[in-house]
Structures are given as structure tokens and as C-alpha cells.
Design goal:
With 462 residues, the chain is α+β, with helices and mostly antiparallel strands. It has 15 helices and 18 strands. The chain has a seven-stranded antiparallel beta sheet with strand order 15-12-14-13-17-18-16, with helices on both faces. Bound molecules: flavin-adenine dinucleotide.
């Protein structure tokens, strides 16, 4: 990048907020995937006006701008694959307001989700979305990816809590989308368009969130099964029963093997799957529903079925669930993580197809995740040094996506398309739908400077 551009960036945000050495730039080259690419510079703006100045410079000189929160993305969204400037939003980290009267919070995008949740709970309110990365991801990254998490079964995902946004468009203009009100139908729903747009339509600089009241009680239940089929059938039964779990997660036996020592109890040898279930609400109602869900698990042959006796015990169970993803690297040094979703009735078919794919391709493919909404995290484990395994991985990914589409599922429930899934977009979107999405992108970003190379396979048509 030319010196005069770097100097201009330094003038706008302060020289201490621009990184240019190779070592510093490399720190912002990757996210939580195995992809990496070197940016030309890394900039930390301190206000929306500074973000707009960076984007206007990028327009004038046609260099890529790549928004970045905490870099915990699982699809390569913040990897600067075409170079340019990585714009890190972590200095925009203020909780501007928590209003008990309006049940809203107004925040900057760089706020760490866990801090926001704690601040909201200190006011007796609740912001439900709870991805396993809550302690280190940013709310801006959550909006850009439409993050989900365990409690989506009852509460929905990030999309269901964003009322309004302030965004710097790829042209450098600053717009407001949405409202501070619970309803609003004035014009097209641009807010929703930005949800899950993966930093390709603009840089989010302020977020207005809907809050709910904090549920007074929550209880957790763990149930072990000796077959995956029995666990999958129990998920279906619980969902049909009207017992409305808050979270309904599962782990298969490989996953369990990796986190077993973190669980507050020992599981019998031969446990093939564990269901982790949370229920929240009024104390008596929670106790009632937990009892009935436990019975439902026992009726399906679960053993043991354990109800958490203290908040610490429940916390221990959820901590084990939250470290599952990195813990799988105990089995093999590399993995490709997919987060497919299938209709609820197709979970057993997907689980059985995964076993076939693993056998057919000679790979270990553990799965865990949000069984309650059909969002299964499929992990294809491999060793980069073993050529046979390396070559089998993309074939297994293709097998998986083919099966998911056959089951009327979707390629991603919460991690987005980014770089890693872009080549497969045509497996889900028809040519006409894909062309319309490209036209939308071009309407927002005529020069294709905003996070280029993401979501769409190949360059934009001339
Ligand atoms: C261990 C682990 C567990 C995880 N568990 C879950 C889970 O349970 N559920 C889930 O949904 N995800 C999960 N994730 C994925 C990840 O944490 C989420 O996608 C999160 O929302 C990313 O936030 P981030 O701040 O790290 O964003 P980044 O990775 O920095 O960026 C993600 C995308 O958002 C864009 N972006 C970031 N900030 C902005 C902004 N202000 N304006 C516009 N675009 C922006 C980037 O360009 C990029 O495309 C997990 C990740 C890890 C590593």
C-alpha cells in the first residue's frame, strides 16, 4: 500500500491505531478457520466518522476494506483474501445505554458479547443469544453473522433481537436502518438485510437491541444414551411434547471422549450420546418441566439422567459444552467444521448419513450441537500430513452438503458462507436467486470494495 495512503489513515485515526509491520499485520490475517491472507494495513478506528473516512479513501483508491470484530468467525469472513485494509472495530466498545423502560440496549459493535450479557443481567434484564464464543466474540460480529447458540430453540437468534443499526455503507455514507420500537414497517427491512451479511454490505457502527426480562429460574439436565438413534428419537419426542426446552444440545461419543474429564460426573463406558437440556422460566414450572423431560429421557432408555442440583453444577456442564470445538483437536490436529441445519424430523437421517460418510471416506467425523433446532456441528477431522486424509476432506464436505440438500436442509445455520462455503453456494441458491443477490451486493457496493471475495463464488460478473 502506498505511503501516502498509510499516512492519510494515520492522520484520520492516529498513528498508534494503524499497524503496518509484517508481524503485526499477520496477527490480523486469519480467523477461526484454517484460512489466512496478509492485509496491507490494519486500522483501529475510534468513531463512525473515522470508519466513514477509511471507507471513502478506499472508494477513491479502490482498495478492499475488511471489517473485523474478534476474528472468531468460522467461515473466513474477516480474512483479507484480496488484501487491503482490515478495519478492526474493537475500539468502538461502549455500551451506550441499557433502558429498562424501553427494554432496549444501544451498543457499539466492538462490545464483547459476554460483557454485554453481564451488564444487561445486572439490570435484571436478559439478552438471550449465547454462542459458545460469547466470552470473546463481538456483538458486531454476531450481527454480521447472525450468530445463534444453544438457547435459540426457545429464544431465537441474533436476528430476533436487532431493532436498528447505524451503518457506514461501502460508498462511505452513514445510514440508520430500523427503529428503537418493537414494531416498524417503514420501507424495506434494511436491518434484516444487514443481519448475516458478513461485512459485505457495510460496516456496522451502532446497534439497538431488544431485551427481555431475565427468567427467574433455570435448570439443566444431562441424559446419556447407548445409541445415537435413541438420543435423536428423544430429541423429537421432547420437541413434540410441548415442554419447550430453552436449550437442547447433543454430543456424540467422540466429542464426549474429548470433554469427559470436564463433566461433573462420570459416564458409563459405551455411552454413545449425551443430551444436555436447559429449561427456564418460573421456578415451579421449571421444576415441573424438568421432571417430565427427565421421564421422557428415561422412557427412551437414557441412563444416567442427571438434574443439576446447583448453579455451579449446571455451569460445569455448559462449560464442557462450550469447549467442545477446540477439544476435538485432541483426536486429530486439523478439522473442517460445518454447521448444517436439517428439518427436525430429518435429524436421525443426517446422523446416520454422517456415519456412512465417515466410513466411506475413511475419516473421523464427530458431531455435536443444537439438536433442538436441527443445527448440527459436523467436524471432519484430519491430519494435514496424511495425504489420504487431506484429499478425502473436500469429498466428505461435498457428500455432507449433498445429503443436507437432499433432506431439504441448509448449508449453514449460524457460521455463514464467508470464504469456506462460497464454492458450494450454488448447491442451495438457484441461478436466479444468486444473480439477484449479486445485484443487491452491486447496488450497495458498486466498486466491490467491501469484503470482496466473500459469500459469492468467483468474481462479480463484469
Ligand atoms: C470456539 C468457538 C465457538 C463458537 N460458537 C458459536 C456458536 O455457538 N454460535 C455461533 O453462531 N457462532 C459461534 N462461533 C463463531 C463466531 O464466534 C461467531 O460467528 C461470531 O459472531 C463472530 O464474531 P467476531 O467478533 O469474532 O467476528 P469476526 O470473526 O471478526 O467477523 C465475522 C464476520 O463479521 C464481519 N464483521 C465483524 N464486525 C463487523 C461490523 N462491525 N460490521 C460489519 N461486519 C462485521 C466480518 O467482516 C466477518 O465477515 C464460534 C467460534 C468459536 C471460535
Amino acid at each position: 500500500m502506498q505511503d501516502h495512503l498509510i499516512n492519510y489513515l494515520k492522520q484520520q485515526v492516529g498513528p498508534e491505531h494503524v499497524l503496518t509491520s509484517p508481524e503485526e499485520r499477520w496477527t490480523y490475517a486469519y480467523d477461526a478457520t484454517d484460512r489466512a491472507a496478509m492485509p496491507d494495513a490494519v486500522v483501529f478506528p475510534g468513531s463512525a466518522a473515522e470508519v466513514a473516512a477509511i471507507v471513502r479513501l478506499a472508494n477513491a483508491h479502490r482498495f478492499p476494506v475488511v471489517p473485523r470484530g474478534a476474528g472468531t468467525g468460522r467461515s473466513g469472513g474477516s480474512v483479507p483474501i484480496e488484501g487491503g485494509v482490515v478495519v478492526v472495530l474493537t475500539r468502538l466498545n461502549r455500551i451506550l445505554e441499557i433502558s429498562k423502560n424501553d427494554l432496549v440496549a444501544v451498543v457499539e459493535p466492538g462490545v464483547i458479547l459476554g460483557k454485554l450479557k453481564a451488564a444487561v443481567e445486572a439490570e435484571g434484564l436478559y439478552y438471550p443469544p449465547d454462542p459458545a464464543s460469547a466470552e470473546f466474540c463481538t456483538i458486531g460480529g454476531n450481527v454480521a453473522e447472525c450468530a445463534g447458540g444453544a438457547v435459540a430453540v426457545q429464544y431465537g437468534v441474533t436476528r430476533d433481537y436487532v431493532l436498528g443499526l447505524e451503518v457506514v455503507l461501502p460508498t462511505g455514507e452513514l445510514i440508520e436502518a430500523g427503529t428503537r420500537t418493537m414494531k416498524g414497517v417503514v420501507g424495506y427491512d434494511l436491518t434484516r438485510l444487514f443481519l448475516g451479511s458478513e461485512g459485505t454490505l457495510g460496516i456496522i457502527t451502532r446497534i439497538t437491541l431488544r431485551l427481555v426480562s431475565k427468567p427467574p429460574a433455570r435448570q439443566t439436565l444431562a441424559a446419556g444414551f447407548d445409541t445415537m438413534e435413541a438420543a435423536a428419537a428423544t430429541v423429537s419426542l421432547i420437541l413434540r411434547s410441548g415442554l419447550t426446552p430453552t436449550a437442547l444440545e447433543f454430543m456424540d461419543h467422540v466429542t464426549l471422549g474429548c470433554v469427559q474429564e470436564m463433566l461433573p460426573f462420570a459416564l458409563p463406558a459405551g455411552t454413545a450420546a449425551l443430551l444436555l437440556i436447559a429449561v427456564d422460566g418460573q421456578p415451579q414450572d421449571v421444576a415441573d418441566r424438568v421432571g417430565r423431560i427427565a421421564q421422557c429421557c428415561r422412557d427412551q432408555g437414557a441412563s444416567p439422567v442427571l438434574e443439576s442440583k446447583t448453579p455451579e453444577e449446571a455451569e460445569g456442564l455448559w462449560r464442557a459444552r462450550k469447549v467442545v470445538s477446540p477439544a476435538l483437536l485432541k483426536v486429530k490436529p486439523h478439522k473442517v467444521s460445518e454447521d448444517v441445519v436439517v428439518p427436525l424430523g430429518s435429524i436421525p437421517a443426517l446422523i446416520s448419513a454422517l456415519q456412512d460418510i465417515a466410513r466411506g471416506r475413511g475419516l473421523i467425523i464427530p458431531s455435536y450441537g443444537h439438536a433442538g433446532d436441527g443445527n448440527i456441528h459436523v467436524n471432519i477431522l484430519y491430519d494435514q500430513q496424511v495425504e489420504r486424509e487431506r484429499q478425502a476432506v473436500p469429498l466428505a464436505v461435498e457428500d455432507l452438503f449433498t445429503m443436507v440438500r437432499k433432506l431439504n436442509g441448509t448449508l449453514s445455520g449460524e457460521h455463514g458462507i464467508g470464504l469456506t462455503k462460497a464454492p458450494y453456494l450454488g448447491m442451495e441458491l438457484s441461478p436466479a436467486a444468486l444473480a439477484l443477490q449479486r445485484r443487491l451486493k452491486a447496488a450497495f457496493d458498486p466498486l466491490n470494495i467491501m469484503n470482496p471475495g466473500k459469500i459469492f463464488p468467483g468474481p462479480p460478473p463484469p
